[in-house]
Amino acid sequence: MNASDLWRFGEIDSWSESYTGGYQRPLHQNRINKAVRYLFHEVGIFPTSILVNIRGKVNYFLSNAIGDFAEFGILEIPEKSLPFWIIDGQHRLAALFAASREDEKFEKFAVPVSLFNYANRYDEMKHFYIVNDRQKRIKTDLAQRHLFSTISIEGESKLLDFEPRDKILAAQATRVVDFLRLHPESPWLHMIQIPSQIKRGYNINTQTSMAKSIGYILRTFSPEQRVEVMEEPKILGLHLINYWNALKEIYPEAFNTPKNYKLQKTFGCYVFNMLFSHIYKKCLENEDDSEEFMKEILLEMLSDFNDRTDSDATSSAFWHGAYGHSMTRGSGMQVIRKLVKEFIEYF
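Below the sequence we write its predicted structure tokens.
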């Protein structure tokens, strides 16, 4: 197809916080600029096809069969069936459009196109996810949301042959992350960076690490319970708000200046979300899941750790990034698991 036809009739179904039904990444100007330089100063061809979907009806007329595997024909696309939804290749198209401003010959640039006729956005998104995640990788945070949509429709059991369990659990946790970052009483309000969002000073953590750490909680849930959490994230979200507010009561300095401490960063999120199931089990045994009772259990656990290790785990200084405890100044899952193991000795 001519590049100009794809510009005229093409649309990109981009994900944003205000439009969560989309699946595409936002355009990156640096990638476009590199592709423009490639067009003008290097080989200047795009040999791989751009993937396009038409959700409306199309008409196909056979002209000539080629053996038993291919055929020539005429494809008729009614105007009412447009637009072309760009599944893969948006940066190449944007580069061609930018290049055409300097040289109009790029309007007739021949673009190889693989055209699909999926009737709905879900099938389109699924194809985008498979192509990008399996081949050239999309950002993990957006991939988590794509996978959440797939699990919602097809169920987790169908995906276990194709995706790692931890990846599925993290995807199932994404709506819980949204609940935490938007609830007015949450200590995570506006602090978690999401797809397409430019990192701000108040973003202390990312959707990716928060969802992965909450995935450890979902490990203890039955498949039916995980479905409930996906459909109604406040089931788990409200308990996590109480839990993290209890931690805020224990460590006020760390929550007041979170950049200086490891507590709300990836390290601390993994540690305390991996501990949550043990704390919540105590809540169920005592039929009390209040913030006050969670704080009481946490203080008992931390005090037990102090007695065994001659530490001061009830102080914010324990989690300071520069001069905190030797274990909290470390990084990686091996150190995180070691600290969690020390804490759960209490239980």
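The two ends are 65 Å apart (CA to CA).
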